[in-house]
TrEMBL record:
This is Protein phosphatase 4 regulatory subunit 3B. Residues 776-819 have a biased composition (Polar residues). Residues 5-101 form the PP4R3 EVH1-like domain. It comes from Otolemur garnettii. Residues 733-764 have a biased composition (Basic and acidic residues). Residues 714-849 are annotated as: Disordered. GO terms for molecular function: protein phosphatase activator activity.
Length: 849
């Protein structure tokens, strides 16, 4: 038996009774030694891999449908289908199957599916005719016909025989003629019987019967029969809806009559399945599987026919992007594309690729930019759905477009910024659209789906683009809500206000259709400790939570770019302002953001946290929470437990030295005592190392001045500060943080040598209830009255007369953690000795002292 190859698509039926495309290849019928029998083999046309290897079992029921389909079940709940490109190929494989099973190729099903009990029953019965004898198609026989159709549904073999009888005698058209007569005579009883008959025929699950019932000649009468459900007091009006209410809108006239007929048929059959027929019971789930397949393959044909009509698609795009097109017409065009993209999901992968590439070539992305900015909510929603199809298909295609666009357009009209604007300005109280758009943004900025090309530039190029052109738009609501001046005045960013331009945030938008302004809150929740206030609006809090979720994703996946952004904008400090929100979910989002940062165990982040005293709002939130055992309490405790378990020394030292007095009373967990133990163990370890060093190396001659180092660290962290955003490192464009450390080390060594002869620091004097003033008197500067420098905690910057001075705002209880500035040459051994020589009052008081 020679191999015959035919081009086919392989489908499997999933749990949702939908057909999944497994690929395209060529089918052959050949003997397979391992399976010990004739088998169907399908090899992929792309790489020759084996898509299907199925033995032609003599007892398996194969069905031939619509001239180009062969469907069968391999096992329980595992259905397979081969869709042939040509009828001739289907006929040839069907003959091979029938030859193996000893059947006549003229049949459309090779076996009867019967269970054991039914098989035994039929063995005991005398031979019967192959077909069921149908009653004559008359009004007075309708009850008998209904009883017959209903009785065969429980028997697979009787269902098959009834289907053959209905098909051979042209019985369905005769029944529909009776329906018209009953309706004219207002014969309600007859109409109820016809409902049962037509519903039962649909449950026979026979494709050849569907082709008759869903033809233009019969389908409306079929719908009419299904209106007269005996369980309803009044019949439904489905035909009225399909003919009068449901309007077929042609955005561009469709000249192909076959395509028009296929579209009408598919809509009506989908309506019958989804609306008219009741939801099938557990015992009827498989009754309509062929109906599902009928709709599926219709959709495949529609998309293929539209895609091949290049003139049609070109005309649609021309009108969509034409400024002269009115809003109603554009709405129809967008809805057409939404349905078109939804139908395209039925295509096999390579055809779907070609489909979306065709749309991209015709300009779908620039068109989306226009329609996503329209005021019409329905249009924006449809455009978002289309955009989601494109992102799901190829994130790289969208990224490539926006990067090319950035070279020709301003940031204001970039597609990604349009998407961010829609997310920020979502008017839905539950932010349903914003959640969808946030997911799409996350897909676009996910490095995992960025192509690994030969030059590997997509990730770096796109992330550079995103952080330079889009990140400021995304974080605008967050920065606005947590800025000091806005917090003091009680202003906040309201969802629905334009977050598009930063200038709009300050002065009110003059160019956008959405009114841009700030709104004063009546009920602002403040913190008793620092009087910072947070948005007390649920919709705004939800928006900020979404933005924080996206930023948290960036921390996990964009190590370098997000690190620079956090430092430049002092972003973590701003985020932690939200720990004061009355909305616990928002406080948890802020805490989760910090937890991800600490989870990286990056000493650069650790220095930033300790220098900024950024644990204070977290600890304040824990203390304010009191003895309540809730999610916030557990999340904060887990944060500190992680630091203890991972033994992050710089953070452990900072927490113990500054906050232990406030935390030592918490005894329901051993986390904080554990941190203290870790801290003391590290001190003992350093003391042992110090004792093992020869005394000459510990003399003052060879020791660096810890106080000078502390001052120098403060200088370094504040040298590059920007006025806006309190930046603590250089911007992304200037330099990489990692590259600063060698230069900083050289500066430190020069400063150290210049200050070896300086006098010791004066003891701290309390200057205000919340601050301490540390004055560094240097021998040279004291004599000359110049170069005096002071670091003032929580006091405004000031300059001394005739001298060059520099001041820095620090939090109340901040101290420079010994050894925390990892990477600078500062040995804990030396500092421990300083600690022994100096008196304890030199230390800054801890929180709660």
């Amino acid at each position: 038996m020679s191999d015959t190859r035919r081009r086919v698509k392989v489908y499997t039926l999933n749990e949702d009774r939908q057909w999944d495309d497994r690929g395209t290849g060529h089918v052959s019928s050949t003997y397979v030694e391992e399976l010990k029998g004739m088998s169907l083999l399908v090899r992929a046309e792309s790489d020759g891999s084996l898509l299907l290897e199925s033995k032609i079992n003599p007892n398996t029921a194969y069905q031939k449908q619509q001239d180009t389909l062969i469907v069968w079940s391999e096992a329980e709940n595992y259905d397979l289908a081969l869709s042939f490109q040509e009828k001739a190929g289907c006929d040839e494989i069907w003959e091979k199957i029938c030859q193996v099973q000893g059947k006549d190729p003229s049949v459309e099903v090779t076996q009867d599916l019967i269970d054991e009990s039914e098989e035994e029953r039929f063995e005991e019965m005398p031979e019967t005719s192959h077909l069921i004898d149908l009653p004559t198609c008359e009004l007075n026989k309708l009850e008998e016909i209904a009883d017959l159709v209903t009785s065969v549904l429980s028997s697979p073999i009787r269902r098959e025989k009834l289907a053959l009888a209905l098909e051979n005698e042209g019985y369905i058209k005769k029944l529909l003629q009776l329906f018209q007569a009953c309706e004219n005579l207002e014969n309600t009883e007859g109409l109820h019987h016809l409902y049962e008959i037509i519903r039962g025929i649909l449950f026979l699950n026979k494709a050849t019967l569907f082709e008759v019932m869903f033809s233009d000649e019969c389908i409306m009468d079929v719908v009419g029969c299904l209106e007269y459900d005996p369980a309803l007091a009044q019949p439904k009006r489905h035909r009225e809806f399909l003919t009068k209410t449901a309007k077929f809108k042609e955005v561009i006239p469709i000249t192909d009559s076959e395509l028009r007929q296929k579209i009408h048929q598919t809509y009506r059959v989908q309506y019958i399945q989804d609306i008219i027929l009741p939801t099938p019971s557990v015992f009827e789930e498989n009754f309509l599987s062929t109906l599902t397949s009928f709709i599926f393959f219709n959709k495949v044909e529609i998309v293929s026919m539209l895609q091949e009509d290049e003139k049609f698609l070109s005309e649609v795009f021309a009108q969509l992007t034409d400024e002269a097109t009115d809003d109603d017409k554009r709405r129809e065009l967008v809805n057409f594309f939404k349905e078109f993209c939804a139908f395209s999901q039925t295509l096999q992968p390579q055809n779907r690729d070609a489909f979306f590439k065709t749309l991209a070539k015709l300009g779908i992305l620039p068109a989306l930019e226009i329609v996503m900015g329209m005021d019409d909510l329905q249009v924006r929603s449809a455009a978002t759905d289309i955009f989601s199809y494109l992102v799901e298909f190829s994130p790289s295609m969208v990224r490539e477009f926006v990067m090319q666009e950035a070279q020709q357009s301003d940031d204001d009209i970039l597609l990604i910024n349009v998407v961010i604007e829609q997310m920020i300005c979502d008017t839905d109280p539950e932010l349903g659209g914003a959640v969808q758009l946030m997911g799409l943004l996350r897909t676009l900025i996910d490095p995992e789906n960025m192509l690994a090309t030969t030059n590997k530039t997509e990730k770096s190029e796109f992330l550079n683009f995103f952080y330079n052109h889009c990140m400021h738009v995304l974080t605008a609501p967050l920065l606005t809500n947590t800025s000091e001046d806005k917090c003091e005045k009680g202003f906040f960013f309201l969802s629905g206000v334009c977050g598009w331009h930063l200038s709009c945030l300050s002065y009110g938008c003059q160019v956008h259709s959405v009114s841009c302004s700030f709104f004063l809150l009546d009920n602002i929740v403040g913190s008793n400790k620092n009087n910072t206030i947070c948005p007390d609006n649920y919709q705004t809090a939800q928006l900020l939570a979404l933005i924080l979720e996206l930023l948290t994703f960036c921390v996990e996946h964009h190590t370098y770019h997000i690190k620079n952004y956090i430092m430049n904008k002092d972003l973590l400090r701003r985020v932690l302002v939200l720990m004061n929100s009355k909305h616990t979910f928002l406080a948890l989002c802020a805490l989760r953001f910090m937890r991800r940062i600490i989870g990286l165990k990056d000493e650069f982040y650790n220095r930033y946290i300790t220098k900024g005293n950024l644990f204070e709002p977290v600890i304040n939130a824990l203390l304010d929470n009191g003895t309540r055992y809730n999610l916030l309490n557990s999340a904060v405790v887990e944060l500190f437990e992680f630091i203890r378990v991972e033994d992050i020394k710089s953070l452990t030292a900072h927490i113990v030295e500054n906050f232990y007095k406030a935390l030592e009373s918490i005894e329901y967990v051993q986390t904080f005592k554990g941190l203290k133990t870790k801290y003391e163990q590290e001190k003992d370890k350093q003391n042992q190392k110090l004792n093992s060093v020869p005394s000459i190396l510990r003399s003052n001659r060879f020791r660096r001045d810890a106080k000078a180092l502390e001052e120098d660290e403060e200088m370094w962290f504040n040298e590059d500060e920007e006025e806006e955003g309190k930046a603590v490192v250089a911007p992304v464009e200037k330099s990489k943080p990692e590259d600063d450390f060698p230069d900083t080390y050289e500066k430190f060594m020069e400063t150290k040598k210049a200050k070896e002869s300086e006098d010791k620091e004066n003891l701290p004097k309390r200057t205000s209830p919340g601050g301490f003033k540390f004055t560094f008197s240097h021998s040279a500067s004291t004599a000359n009255g110049t170069n005096s420098k002071s670091v003032v905690a929580q006091t405004p910057p000031a300059s001394s007369n005739g001298s060059s001075s520099k001041t820095t705002n620090l939090a109340t209880s901040v101290t420079t953690t010994k050894g925390s500035l990892v990477g600078l040459v500062d040995y804990p051994d030396d500092e421990e000795e300083d600690e022994e020589e100096e008196t304890s009052p030199r230390k800054r008081p801890r929180l709660g002292s």
